[in-house]
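Progress note, project year one: complex with iron/sulfur cluster.
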Amino acid sequence: MQALVIAAHGSHLNPDASDPTYAHADTIRETGAFDEVREAFWKEEPHFREVIRTLESDEVFVVPLFISEGYFTEEVIPRELRLEEWDPDRWESDGTSASQATLEAEDVGKTIHYCGPVGTHDAMTDVIVQRAETATEDPDVGEGFGLSVVGHGTDRNENSAKAIKYHSDRIADRDRFDEVKALFMDEEPEVDDVTDYFESEDIVVVPLFIADGYHTQEDIPEDMGLTEDYRLGWDVPAAVDGHRIWYTGAVGTEDLMADVVLERAADAGADIGDAREAVRELAASVADTGPEPSAGTGTGD
Amino acid sequence: MTVATDDLETLLEHAAAGVAFDGLHVDESDDGYRLETPDNEWTGLDETELHHALESCEEYVTNWRYWQDRVGGEGTARRAFLRWCERAPLADAETDHATTGPWSERSEGDADAGGEPLAVPERYDALRDGIDREWGQLSITARFVDIDDPDGERVYDLWHVDDAGSDIAALEVYDDPRDARELATYDDDGRYRPLKTAPTLPAGWAFTGLSGAALVETVEFFYPATVANWHRELQGNLDVDHWLETAERQTGIYDVIDELPREAVEWMAEACCVDSQCLRRREWQYEAGDELDADGGDGPFPCREPCSLVVAAARKWTTLESETEHTYELELTTSELNQLEELIDAVAEDRTEDIREADVYDGANRYRARYLRAKRFDDEGELEATRVDD
Ligand code: SF4
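Model obtained:
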């Protein structure tokens, strides 16, 4: 038997913070690739601390639903899971290349395949592109468009910026969009001046965050000038300084994220059969039928 | 109903190694099969005779089949929980500790739990009507799918204890365990419930006809990890992490909480870990060998270490407790001092909503509070108090 644990932050204050975790876990449950699929949280229940003991499987794949390598993936999660032999060096990562480490959870004696975060997986690049497609409701979006990947910045975690730049570079290499730019909330180049960095009239802005919350639904829309007050909502696209900004919030709510979780587990040796195809088909059909429902909170007109 | 051919075949397969389950014994030896139940014993049977003999104890056979095939998972918390649900003996799968946990004490003389575990014939009778159990605020019924001609297949219903007497037609009916996540998210006032074991689960819903696996999944969405920790407690191997180890393990912004004074940990436990706030029974202490005086509560689920909510709150209290105390002078009548006490108490007990608008006899009445503020607050909206120490 094999189990999948999706480890996410969660919140004591905001019930929506765990929505993407539940959504992606449910998608993977539907594929039947794992005997057990479990959500686990730092701030909600089941806590990281207790999740492994709720599983019957001996092989457990833990995928952190986090954007970058850093404090949570390197310290908090392995410690709370009681992975005594853990050492960040086991990932041999330069900040964006963590794949997996096989360890034992001391309280239960199960084998844990501890994976790198979803945010730095190569498949995440596709999710960002799909986000652009969802935002514009155009599966071929690219020509005539600029794309910006937005991250928090380096104040708390130097790897956070690395992840943003990594995917921006990969998207730029594909020559699909006219321009691609990594922007940040707390460091240069700043998302406040988004229109200064693009010549294209149309700019898709994709925040590399797991869940919608304060940053993606309040800060970033106001900083970019999409709206005076986030509570009033904003248009998609919104006109700013002669550009059209296509913004629909956290990329982590995109359906294709479930595919990245699966890839992480598969890279670590999980037998996932054709689950990836199933998830990709599902995500594609959702993209065809209209905009992401979770974008709704910010798109009032 | 009769013992089905495939049941017989499976039994025969297992007989060589010996079947011993819930009072049913089947063995194979050189002189044929031996069949034993608490009421009867047959020896030297050939296959046909065994089949006939099994007809007279089909309850034992279908019971064995249900646990063997449908539930499986020998030694797992899931299986133990499902057995607990129908008051089946737990000890056959567990260690001696199974009968010494608080759960077994609770069940004695507890009308709901109904005391002693049931043997197969009594259980079969009871499963026709449904066997009820309570798990926190959840009421669970185990029953046969087919009550007229039970083939051993059980299903489970689940609702809020407050709805135990309600007509099912009055409840919102669900069958997907994942719906429990939504139901457990908000309380009756629409407030978010970050602590799943807060005794504020709203009523008005029912899950019906769940399989055993789906039941456990649903219960786990309502009360994560409670089944696993209950099972550990039953087996006598619940691992408890006391306050200090948990606090010392923290890093980042929670790094400071091990500095929270011991007496403040007492106040914290008294504030958070009581039955009115949490259905878990606090098993953690200040540290091993250093028990907190605060009562751990009588909650059904063991709490094996401070939860994330308590850890987060402890950070705030650590900051607050690092402040020095001062002496202040302020003018208050005796009744106003009493009123302050009533105000704090009303908020702490979440009573403010219940105080009627015109009930000016309650110190926490809104008009009384507004009057006190009008009288005693200065232009800055602060209590007129003077610090008298330097
Ligand atoms: S630490 Fe206290 S409040 Fe938190 S779950 Fe345990 S008993 Fe409940």
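The mean pLDDT of chain A is 92.
The interface with chain B takes residues 11-15, 22, 26, 41-47, 49-51, 53-54, 56, 71, 75-76, 79, 107 of chain A (CB under 8 Å).
No further modelling is planned for this target in the current period.
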